[in-house]
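Hey all, sorry for the wall of text incoming. These are the two entities for the joint prediction.
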Amino acid sequence: MSVPLAPILVAESSDSAFATRLRQVISNTQQNHFPRVDYASDEHIQGLADTDCLWPSPGRARFLLDTTLKRMGRYYHVLMRSTVLRELEDHIKSPNTTGLAVKSKLWAVFAIGELYATRTFVAGSAFPGLHYFAKATKMLNITPERPSLTAIELRLLLASSQVRQPATDMH
Amino acid sequence: MGLHLNVPPAVLPDATMREHRRRVWWTAYTFDRMWSAKLGFPHAISDTVIDVDLPTNLSEDADQNDVPDCSYLIAMIGLARLTSQTMGSIYGSASQKTSLSQRVQSALTDLRKWKDELPESLMIKNVDLAASDSRACCLQLMFNQVIVPGIHHIRTCANPSSKVAHNLYTPDIIACGSNSPDTVAS
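and here's what came out:
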């Protein structure tokens, strides 16, 4: 990205980078830093959002939901376990009756589940869960007529999936 | 939605759903404070407008999977608040009344107090990660992330022989290194 189009530095967020580097230097173990240079283009994400995405099989869907609840749900309360489990089961039984908000929430759940469940990443292949993420973001194109907790849960899920979790599996 | 306000039981009789609303609010608050601090932007939610209670533990007949013990959430909310206060004390506008070193030392003292008041279950025990709750490690990482900029400023801008700085940075910097097998990318 050219410099004039890049966001300007508002505060000294480089201190955060300093903090990371300091810990890397004084840590006993070797730390590898992966600079992210491979971004999906806006057109690619929009294209994915408009492309049909196969709903994961019931087993895979339950696995992805369980992964999201166990990993992200352990650190941040966004979803109520019993509610989202019921919503998934209802959708599996009768997919056509699920509303857009709940469906988008489940897409976001699957995207996060894929992020946590994917252990290996092959360069050049699709980013884990990107298609699910793109489908979930379609809901943001509309301004709902009425506010709902589901819409807020969706936004929190999407926001958190864009930021790396501070504590991944450390055990 | 009014998530920042308490909902009376007469309006929403389901206690679990009332607690869910509260916790979703505080998650949004935590994201706002943590991420604005990391990105160097001002936070969006002012403490003065919040009129909703902190998360609570429900009675034993409530499903613990839906609303687990609240002590971790309360610790994280406290740290999120201190994070924005610390960043404000370091990078805030020049019109603040006290000097930078006083502000930073005061913020670091508050952070130390927060850490000392953590419940036993959320403390890192002898830097043995396997014996600690992974959520305790998460809090420690967030704590490190906010305390290091403060220490950085004390070391570079303020009196380096400051007693507060000395007492604070030595154990914490060592902990930062040994507790960070999974480094937080910035």
